[in-house]
């Protein structure tokens, strides 16, 4: 971490913890430079970054001040109250209709599930491909069938150490992206008709997976900032024969919520008491804006019940299709399902990633990526405050690249999605994020395209469309 | 095709068709050179290749003669009579036990499902990886999600033209190997509890797929040389509510059978009358020893009922994990299942294969590969004739890399597999190839490792073990 990054992070931490409060003045560049023994340029760079993230504001001829939190500008959504009943899942058609129609380069990708590919070191990765495969002994292509590349598995093991935990290498199964890991885990612990607990709102791909395997869903109250409410889950477990949970404890899609460590621990302990496995979707864990990678729930697992799933698709190598699971006591079952369906993960992708991870550009890349996303979030929050009507509520995640927006009464997100599509603007309407299509005035917006100049005008257009939906239609001229 | 290959192929065709009969003398090198206006070296090279394939024999100071067909040395197995009943499938445990235990480099790979990686242009492929990915516009990584690389899809389309047919590009879904294609197709056309018709014997992965999706199997009589018996299938369709068929019309695994074109056409017409989809596993189609690639059953499909599945894993690029299906009327359903499970196939693998296929080493590589496998088959057939007891029956496939061996009465293949494993020799016992474990004295042997010097001694050891199983045990010394 560079010096200015370290200083910026310290101040951000003071703001997050409330030690520095909105409106308070920061030390001047000269004061900070003297007291910290760092150059004025370093202080200035740190303040510049903090300002870009919306955490502090420069006042001309006066200095830098802690900004009003975004929450004061646009309130956060409240925790939704999910239905206490279990639900058949039938969402796939809607997901394909809505998202398939706007996956074109001329559409502003606010509805996309991916960050911009321009954020990734694709050229550096490409350069590793040929040498990595030429080094590979041909025999290993067949021998490493079952478990994935030895070199990559070692590097994945190291990432757990960076995250402050460790997993047994024998638990690891390399998969074709996290999506395959999640699906194999789900199939390993359920049979058709079983009940699975999900968040509320839920990532639509989890709902699609349930639908594909003919499983039923029960939704658990999920706080927009702190994620799954463990007490609510305890009630659900009392009331229903839940066979598995599929949760995203860090930077949940779509809320961006991050479960505090204590809650993750409590979650794992609760599930251990019930003997219920947790499928932990942790694909955004590396995209934290705070100083430290949040530990996965897996870090608190003593019983092998947590099946931790992640990938490199959102933080390093989109299109390489490399994910994995550390599947605890279900590792062999998952491995066998993999052998029966896709056999093994593409070796060029595995070997190239192993070589890239080993030679060490990864942490520098991640710092740049996190900064770019944090800056981009601040800009989108500011744009929403400018263009969207009062009463709009917005999350302010500490990682990832999604905002969850709750529009004022009277606005329908699916209608808005269709109107936006006519302007070549994509968005993900709330309807996709619940088996009972409850989030009808919510949107998920992607801020992972910082260099896309079309984003700001698109938000202005969206704001106008929202305003128009709220205005009552003009009365028709009366028939004569 | 080189001149000597063309000449060798002409003579092979004359032998296959019976125009040249066993024991007949071929024209001398000088005669053939004069009459065909080709150099003596070309004729000699052609004869040399034919001799290596076991089709002709040199007699010292006399010339070349058509060899006795292998069938005269070891008879072919008869068509098995499958059970007329439908069967629950429970085979996976056995498959994992038997095959997992011998997937080590120190085991002679006679039980392997793969040919030797040394047979493939892995270095040439590796060289295409970096330039192919550097050329790729980053945006396409996300846009081409649904359907696979445009460039690769075009090359796959061309392979259908080479096979004498054509498919609509909109039918194509690129998958993570053929295994994924087959599994997605199966899931697209069935629900748990449905009945699927398979060959007898059947590739164990088909049985595993049925088991995983909780489907029932009904086996159809399959001729060791001509594949599915269409009349038997007609009876099965009359008697049972078959929802889909999973067949390998070309070089079936494990029999190596090749359905004649007329039978393929009759099969497709029969299924069209019943409205039953065919999942066509055609992964060995490119590995033909005859002059022409056999057309897939898909070539006769007018109703979009044939889901043709293949891959590059067995003929070009093991470990790259690129397969596809041309799924006819089910293409959209398959594409959606793919989006829900593995999303898309690794771009480095797709782009490298597209570049390799485009720049044209593929046909030359395939000719060398087919020749190497044909030669290797002839050598293994000769070794079996030397080492195995009379009464052993062996198939003589016109492509692929498997022999199916029926041992004399009194030999148990699973016992033999265990004894062989103790000698570090792998083999696939017949028990794996049927839901009712009927092929208890059959073996599948892999001849796809021509450079492996351990194969011949391993066959000698296997022959000895077979002889020993047939010898009655020595009487125990009587108790005093």
TrEMBL record, chains A, B:
Q: Where is the HTH gntR-type domain?
A: 1-69
Task: List, alphabetically, the SMART domains matched.
Answer: HTH_GNTR
Q: Which domain of life is it from?
A: Bacteria
Q: Which UniProt keywords apply?
A: Aminotransferase, DNA-binding, Pyridoxal phosphate, Transcription, Transcription regulation, Transferase
Query: Recorded GO terms, molecular function?
Result: DNA binding; DNA-binding transcription factor activity; pyridoxal phosphate binding; transaminase activity
**Entry-linked InterPro entries:** Aminotransferase_I/II_large, HTH_trans_reg/aminotransferase, PyrdxlP-dep_Trfase, PyrdxlP-dep_Trfase_major, PyrdxlP-dep_Trfase_small, Tscrpt_reg_HTH_GntR, WH-like_DNA-bd_sf, WH_DNA-bd_sf
Provide the family line.
In the C-terminal section; belongs to the class-I pyridoxal-phosphate-dependent aminotransferase family.
Q: Which PANTHER family match?
A: HTH-TYPE TRANSCRIPTIONAL REGULATORY PROTEIN GABR, TRANSCRIPTIONAL REGULATORY PROTEIN
Q: What is this protein called?
A: Transcriptional regulator, GntR family with aminotransferase domain
Lineage, broadest ranks: Bacteria, Pseudomonadati, Pseudomonadota, Betaproteobacteria, Burkholderiales
């Amino acid at each position: 971490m560079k010096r200015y990054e370290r200083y910026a992070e310290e101040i951000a931490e003071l703001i997050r913890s409330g030690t520095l409060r909105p409106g308070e003045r920061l030390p001047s560049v000269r004061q900070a430079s003297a007291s910290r023994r760092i150059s004025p340029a370093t202080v200035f760079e740190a303040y510049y970054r903090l300002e870009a993230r919306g955490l502090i504001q420069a006042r001309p001829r006066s200095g830098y001040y802690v900004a009003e939190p975004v929450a004061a500008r646009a309130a956060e959504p409240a925790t939704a109250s999910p239905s206490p009943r279990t639900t058949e899942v039938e969402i796939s058609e809607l997901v394909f209709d809505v998202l398939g129609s706007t996956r074109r380069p001329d559409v502003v990708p606010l509805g996309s599930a991916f960050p911009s590919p321009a954020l990734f070191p694709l050229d550096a990765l490409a350069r590793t491909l040929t040498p990595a495969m030429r080094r590979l002994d041909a025999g290993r292509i067949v021998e490493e069938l079952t478990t994935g590349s030895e070199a990559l598995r070692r590097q994945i093991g190291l990432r757990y150490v960076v995250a402050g935990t460790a997993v047994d290498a024998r638990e690891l199964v390399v998969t074709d992206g996290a999506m395959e890991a999640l699906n194999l885990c789900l199939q390993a612990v359920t049979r058709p008709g079983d009940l699975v607990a999900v968040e509320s709102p839920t990532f639509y791909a989890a709902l699609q997976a349930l639908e594909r395997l003919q499983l039923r869903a029960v939704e658990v109250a999920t706080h927009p900032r702190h994620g799954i409410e463990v007490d609510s889950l305890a009630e659900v477990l009392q009331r229903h024969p839940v066979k598995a949970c599929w949760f995203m404890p860090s930077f949940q899609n779509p809320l961006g919520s991050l479960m505090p460590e204590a809650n993750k621990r409590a979650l794992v302990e609760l599930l251990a008491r019930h003997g219920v496995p947790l499928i932990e979707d942790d694909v955004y864990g590396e995209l934290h804006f705070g100083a430290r990678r949040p530990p996965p729930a897996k870090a608190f697992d003593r019983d092998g019940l947590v099946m931790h799933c992640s990938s490199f698709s959102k933080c390093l190598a989109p299109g390489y299709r490399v994910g994995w699971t550390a599947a605890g006591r279900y590792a062999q079952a998952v491995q066998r399902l993999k052998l029966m369906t896709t056999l093994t993960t593409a070796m060029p992708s595995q070997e190239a990633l192993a070589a890239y991870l080993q030679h060490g550009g990864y942490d520098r890349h991640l710092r740049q990526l996190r900064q770019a996303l944090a800056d981009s979030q601040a800009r989108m929050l500011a744009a929403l405050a400018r263009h969207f009507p009062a009463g709009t509520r917005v999350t302010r995640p500490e990682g990832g690249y999604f905002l969850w927006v709750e529009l004022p009464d009277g606005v329908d997100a699916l209608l808005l999605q269709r109107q936006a599509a006519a302007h070549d603007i994509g968005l993900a309407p709330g309807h996709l994020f619940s088996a009972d299509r409850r989030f009808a005035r919510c949107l998920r917006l992607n801020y992972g395209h910082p260099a896309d100049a079309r984003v700001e005008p698109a938000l202005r257009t969206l704001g106008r469309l929202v305003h128009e939906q709220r205005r009552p239609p003009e009365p028709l001229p009366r028939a004569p």
